[in-house]
Each structure stands twice: as C-alpha cells, then as structure tokens.
Amino acid sequence: MTNNSKFLAAAFLIAGLFIFLLLFACKPDMSEYQFAGTTNLTDLSLSGDLTVTDDSTLTDDVDIGGELNFGANDLYPVGYASDGQQIVYGTDTITGTATAAHGLTTVTLCLCTLNRDPDDDAGDAAMCTTSVSSNVCTVKLWQDDFVTAATEAGVSTHWLVVGAP
C-alpha cells in the first residue's frame, strides 16, 4: 500500500467514524423535527417547543405542564375563555323564560340572542336578556316595549355561558 492509499484509507475511516457518531451517538432533540404526512407517535416526550402548523388529531389524554398558546396572539381555542374558564353555548326553543343547561360550577357571564329578527306583533319576542344567580343562567324573552314578558311560543334562542368547569 502506498502512502497516498494509506492516507485515503485513514481519512475515510475517520470520516466514517465521525458520521457514525453524528447519526447514532447524539440524542436528537424532537422539537426540531417536523413530521410530514400521516405519522402515528406514541409516548412522545419533548423538552423544547412544539409547533403544529397543520391539522392534528389527538386520540388520548394530553397533559400540559406549561402554557398552551393558540395562534400569533396566544388566543384560547373555542370552548375556553381564559385560564381556568370555559365557554358553553347552545340553542333552545324558549317560551317566556328558560334556564341554560351549561354544566359549569361557577358562572362568570351569560349572554343570549334571538335566532331571528325581532318581532313587533303583540306578545312576540323582540329581545332577550340574561341573569345569573347561584350559577344558574336564566334567559328571558321580552316584547318590543322592553317591559312585558313575551308570550310567543317556541322562540329559537342562542345562549352562551362562561365560567369555571
């Protein structure tokens, strides 16, 4: 073997050893990886940030030890109003007065709106109001004089309740 061949063999051996160390000896930081297509992961543990830029489906429990932020403005997802607060909403057919079935333990806010334009016929609902007492959200329908309770039957009404679960 000539000196040049010995030098090339040693260089290839050192390069191969270096590549081996890079590929197999270093633990990858999963926060730097992007998974394309359909990928099923189990028992994934991250030590850095994870950014999800496309649709994802979670089929088991997700435990979050820190903050969970949505979007550039750190908005909360639909169903969550702020830290520890949830949003529950629904539509009921109401005659006069009804209670929103929200399931929350502590109500902070309750809102309503008619699922149609106001009506000025006698007895018909023109607006709705809400009141909160002992974590019960009461929705009331009113005539266009804003004093007399509406007697119209079966008015579709949307409601929204914010509070602690």
Bulk shape: rod-shaped
Q: What helical percentage do the residues reach?
A: 10-25%
Number of helices: 1
Instruction: Provide the spatial order of strands within the biggest beta sheet.
Output: 1-2-7-4
Biggest beta sheet attributes: 4 strands, antiparallel
What pattern of helices and strands is seen along the backbone? HEEEEEEE
What is the CATH architecture descriptor of the domain at 80-164? Sandwich
Unreliable stretches (pLDDT < 50, length at least 5) are none
The number of distinct β-strands equals 7
CATH topology of the domain at 80-164: Immunoglobulin-like
Indicate the radius of gyration in whole angstroms. 30 Å
Overall pLDDT level: 77
**Terminal CA distance:** 78 Å
CATH class of the domain at 80-164: Mainly Beta
Give the strand content: 25-35%
Helix/sheet category? alpha+beta
